[in-house]
Amino acid sequence: MGATVGPGARHLLALTLCLAAGTVEPDGRTAGKKVLPPPSSLHYSFGQLCKLKWTWSPPEGISSVCDLRYCSEIETNGIQEKYTEWTKNLFREADVSLNEEVHFRVRSECRSDNKSEQSDWMEISTAPRGAAGTEAVDINCTWHNLEYMSCTWLPGQNASASTNYRLYYWYEGLGSPQQCQANISEDYFKCIFKLSIPNATEIYPTISILIRDDLEEIRPVCANKNPTTIVKPGPPRNVTVSKTNSGLTIEWQNPGNFPPNCLLYKVELKDSKSNPIRPLEVRKFTYTRFPSVEPDTIYTIKVKAKPARDCYNSDLWSDWSEEKSIGEKTDSTFYIVLILTVPLIVAVATVILLGYLKRLKILIYPQIPDPRKIIKRMFGEQNEDCQNCPGDDFLNIYIPVKEEEIHSLVWIETPENSTSENKDQRSPALQVKAM
Fold first, then answer.
1. Are the C-beta atoms of 136 and 221 separated by less than 8 Å?
2. Are the beta carbons of 189 and 165 closer than 8 angstroms?
3. How many CA atoms lie within 13 A of 32 on its CB side?
4. What is the Cα–Cα distance from 178 to 176, expressed in whole angstroms?
5. Do residues 158 and 170 lie in contact, with contact meaning Cβ atoms separated by under 8 Å?
6. Contact 266, 280 (CB under 8 A)
7. DSSP label at 61?
8. 267: exposed, middle or buried (Cβ count in 10 Å: 0-12, 13-18, 19+)
9. Tens of pLDDT along 92-129?
10. Is the pTM for the entire model greater than 0.85?
11. Do 311 and 259 meet the contact criterion of CB atoms below 8 Å apart?
12. DSSP letter for each residue of 279-323
């Protein structure tokens, strides 16, 4: 028959088992197990532009046989980064966006005798500065021809019209951050600064862009740009076109300081007959040839460039080069002008000939004047002359009056007893006597 265990014995047995196994805490660790302390003195500081640096101190009371490591994580606006870093360093640097809240946490781990012991998390947060909605938006940057970078952006929706944005840029090897004064172009801001990186560089540094104001009234914003993804070549230079046999040979020069075989080219050719030729892509060569062309046709050629994938990761094409033309075309302008000019010349000659014939008719058949019109014209002119005669007082000119000679006539009768010689003279004699 087995022994019966009473209630007091059962309680003592349970207490003994708990002491042997240890009490289990809510986080899964037993109360009797030694817990590794977390790192101490965690704080952050700003590095170059958009870099944030966190530093901490090792936990106290750690055994020398412990292989101490640290695990850190970054969370931005509640979204945790996929990358979790394990390191023996007592710091971590990362590029962050200053217009968002950044949460950082770190914990320590002790590895010894194939065992691992982890501490609790030590956490710290950084709040964004400036007013919400004032940060720059739609930031776009382009590296033009490996010579300069151009960045554009729009003002924040809550930013005032007088907001003066400033752009700062920095990359590894530059030294200190440089400032670029922004200019307003239409409704966006634009900033251009020189950026020249040696072609021998195998790994291009990340370009850190910070846009803010001087008074920290607007919220700063950071943007990190990989320059190899935003390369835009300039248009090809010195494009020449020559005719060889029955074809065309087109040559050009590299648009900038690009390494050999790092650009692709596209050639577009159009003819004067409105028959566009399909663009021709040329890889890593600065010349091409069209085997056949048509006579009496003008050809127009232009070229543009794009970075090659084995050198850069950019998909930006350059602008088209200046157009070049070659060829001859039958000029139909002369015939058009001739067709329009001949009828005009005939019309003008006809008008001139009709006028000449009218004058010739007048010379051959002159018009007989009307006597009545002549007499009327004569008397009309005399009346007009009398009407136009000046009066007595005209210009006070004195006209002397010539006295007329007065002659007196005397009638003399011949007496009857006159001689017979005078009988036959019946007519009276008229004597005139001057008075």
1. yes
2. yes
3. 6
4. 6
5. no
6. yes
7. S
8. buried
9. 988 887 888 899 999 998 877 667 788 899 999 988 88
10. no
11. yes
12. PEEEES-SEEEES---SS-EEEEEEEEEE-TTT----PPPPPPPP
CB 340: neighbour CB atoms within 10 A?
Answer: 9
Structure tokens at 359: 């004058």
Is residue 236 within 8 Å of residue 321, measured between CB atoms?
yes
Residue 186's pLDDT band, with cuts at 50, 70 and 90, is confident
Cα separation, 350 vs 343, whole angstroms: 11
DSSP codes, 332-374: -HHHHHHHHHHHHHHHHHHHHHHHHHHHHHHHHSPPPPPHHHH
For residues 137 and 189, give the distance between their C-alpha atoms in angstroms, rounded to a whole number: 10
* Token pair listed for 17: 């088992």
Of 305, 299, 290, the C-alpha closest to 253 is: 305
pLDDT over 60 at 243, yes or no: yes
**Phi, psi dihedral angles at 116 (to 5 degrees):** -125, 135
Domains (range + CATH), the chain = 36-126 (2.60.40.10), 137-231 (2.60.40.10), 237-327 (2.60.40.10)
Is 416 a residue whose pLDDT tops 90?
Answer: no
Q: Which residue has the tokens 């648009």?
A: 255
CA 271, CA 320: separation in Å to the nearest integer?
A: 17
Measured between its terminal Cα atoms, the distance across the chain in Å is 220
Indicate the helix (H) or strand (E) that contains 384. Answer: helix 371-387
How many Å apart are CA 307 and CA 258, to the nearest integer? 9
Report yes or no: 407 and 432 within 8 Å, Cβ to Cβ. Answer: yes
Q: Tell me whether strands 137-144 and 231-232 are parallel, antiparallel or unpaired.
A: parallel
The answer to whether residues 311 and 200 touch, using CB atoms and an 8 Å cutoff, is no
In sequence order, the β-bridge partners of residue 118 are: 109
**What's phi and psi for 226, nearest 5 deg?**
-85, 110
